């Protein structure tokens, strides 16, 4: 009996051509942009079509800690311990590659520079400064590890190149950098993540500011250092001051989520005074999501163009709301949650604050009529949640007023 015929192994169809190299240069540059810049430079040795690929990658990623060898401990001239030996030659090679790109008239502009380096290692900032200047990117993303080499409060500086318009800094609980250089005056967007702000940078053209997990030690009065802000977001942050004073003539949106305003961390008193005076403000969201209610000494709002209000778990001893005319706010909600485990005033006090806010939203309607109009659109939900400590089910209440439905029913 003849042996069965052996099947040939399957191979993918193809003509063996290098289709990647055949792609347009701009498309190849987009494809390799996800790689570290060091690897893109190495790809330039593949063949003639790839010779200048590193002159066209829109994103330049540089992690300077990859050029530190950790086998040895050394000390600098001040006796500070430094981890490893820096491969200076490799970093200088990348600086040379970026310098040649900057001088190549046919090269593409760098859109984004993503740079990771240690500001606590005194050998790194000079390389970082030069790389930032050579790249001259429109967007700069800086990540600074908290490596324990030196105290996290070491001051550092970012000199922005002329093309810079967007800056994102992940500081890993260092001090925020001093922002300077020719790009500082033209910067449009800034995001600071996990830093301590001891002094605000002066950014006269800034339009958008985001603070995430930031400890603000300086007075919080943004009009003094970025008067043209249109969008401001502050989340999971602490303001170590007695006041938040937001008076911005061009501000259009403000989002404050889990922001603690008090001058002393160990105090339980509601020291914070929050004032918002923004004639162009259209959207305002203030909320506490961390399982409790933020308490302020006072909350003052002046926003004649306000259209959307989301106000959740923010209790204030004094409330003054002025939106200019009745029915200005068309959408949103006000709500408070309370149970025996989370820090929250009694629900009757929350209801009183809600009514004061509604009276401010409807300035030409009598308090009695406001109460009658709001009643159908206010709900008090009662339910049980699991205790954080014991695991037992405990009762919780949530009082909500649907502003969208209320304003629609009034037809003002």
The main sheet comes to: 14 strands, mixed
| Count of individual beta strands | 22
Order of helices and strands: HHHEEEHEHEEEEEEEEEEEEEEEEHHEEH
Number of helices: 8
Overall average pLDDT:
87
Gyration radius from CA atoms, angstroms: 28 Å
- What structural class results from the helix and strand content? alpha/beta
Total discrete domains: 1
N-to-C span: 95 Å
Q: How much helical structure, as a percent, in the residues?
A: 10-25%
Spans with pLDDT under 50 lasting ≥5 residues? none
Protein name: F-box/LRR-repeat protein 15/At3g58940/PEG3-like LRR domain-containing protein
InterPro entries: F-box-like_dom_sf, F-box_SCFL_complex_component, LRR_FXL15/At3g58940/PEG3-like
Domain F-box/LRR-repeat protein 15/At3g58940/PEG3-like LRR: 190-313
Secondary-structure topology with pairs:
Blueprint lengths: L18 H4 L2 H8 L4 H7 L15 E5 L4 E8 L5 E6 L1 H16 L8 E5 L8 H11 L3 E5 L13 E3 L6 E10 L2 E3 L8 E9 L10 E5 L2 E2 L14 E9 L3 E5 L5 E9 L11 E5 L5 E5 L6 E9 L5 E5 L1 E9 L8 E9 L7 H15 L5 H8 L3 E9 L6 E10 H8 L2
Parallel strand pairs: 1-4, 4-5, 5-7, 6-8, 7-9, 9-10, 9-11, 10-12, 11-12, 12-14, 13-15, 14-16, 15-17, 16-18, 17-19, 18-20
Antiparallel strand pairs: 2-3, 20-22, 21-22
Helix pairs in contact: 4-5
Provide structural commentary.
The N and C termini lie far apart (95 Å). This protein has 412 residues and is α/β, with parallel strands linked by helices. The chain has one domain. Helix 4 (88-103) packs parallel to helix 5 (125-135). Strand 21 (378-386) and strand 22 form a beta hairpin. The protein has helices at residues 19-22, 25-32, 37-43, 88-103, 125-135, 347-361, 367-374, 403-410, and strands at residues 59-63, 68-75, 81-86, 112-116, 139-143, 157-159, 166-175, 178-180, 189-197, 208-212, 215-216, 231-239, 243-247, 253-261, 273-277, 283-287, 294-302, 308-312, 314-322, 331-339, 378-386, 393-402. This is F-box/LRR-repeat protein 15/At3g58940/PEG3-like LRR domain-containing protein. Pfam families: LRR_At5g56370 (PF24758).
């Amino acid at each position: 009996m003849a042996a069965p015929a052996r099947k040939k192994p399957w191979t993918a169809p193809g003509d063996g051509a290098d289709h990647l190299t055949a792609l347009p240069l701009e498309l190849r540059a987009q494809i390799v942009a996800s790689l570290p810049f060091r690897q893109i430079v190495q790809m330039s040795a593949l063949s003639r079509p790839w010779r200048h690929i590193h002159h066209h990658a829109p994103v330049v990623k540089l992690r300077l800690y990859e050029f530190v060898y950790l086998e040895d401990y050394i000390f600098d001239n001040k006796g500070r311990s430094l981890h490893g030996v820096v491969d200076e030659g490799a970093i200088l090679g990348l600086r040379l590659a970026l310098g040649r790109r900057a001088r190549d008239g046919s090269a593409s502009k760098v859109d984004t520079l993503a740079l990771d380096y240690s500001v606590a290692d005194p050998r790194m900032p000079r390389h970082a400064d030069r790389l930032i200047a050579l790249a001259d990117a429109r967007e700069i993303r800086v990540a600074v590890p908290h490596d324990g080499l030196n105290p996290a409060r070491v001051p550092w500086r970012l000199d922005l190149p002329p093309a810079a318009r967007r800056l994102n800094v992940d500081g890993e609980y260092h001090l925020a950098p001093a922002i300077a250089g020719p790009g500082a005056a033209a910067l449009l967007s800034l995001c600071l993540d996990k830093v301590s702000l001891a002094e605000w940078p002066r950014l006269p053209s800034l339009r958008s500011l985001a603070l995430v997990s930031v400890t603000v030690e300086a007075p919080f009065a943004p009009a003094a250092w970025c008067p043209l802000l249109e969008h401001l977001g502050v989340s999971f942050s602490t303001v170590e001051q007695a006041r938040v004073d937001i008076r911005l003539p061009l501000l259009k949106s403000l989002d404050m989520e889990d922001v603690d305003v008090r001058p002393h961390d160990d105090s339980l008193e509601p020291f914070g005074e929050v004032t918002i005076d923004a004639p162009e403000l259209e959207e305002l969201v203030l909320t506490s999501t961390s399982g409790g209610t933020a308490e302020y000494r006072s909350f003052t709002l002046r926003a004649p163009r306000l259209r959307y209000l989301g106000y959740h778990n923010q209790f204030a001893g004094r409330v003054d709301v002025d939106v200019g005319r009745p029915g200005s706010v068309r959408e949103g909600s006000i709500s408070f949650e309370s149970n025996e485990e989370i820090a929250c005033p009694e629900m009757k006090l929350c209801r009183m604050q809600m009514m004061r806010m509604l009276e401010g939203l409807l300035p030409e309607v009598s308090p009695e009529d406001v109460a009658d109009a709001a009643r159908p659109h206010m709900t008090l939900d009662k339910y049980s949640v699991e205790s954080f400590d014991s695991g037992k089910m405990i009762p919780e209440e949530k009082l909500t007023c649907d502003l969208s439905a209320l304003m629609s029913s009034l037809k003002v």
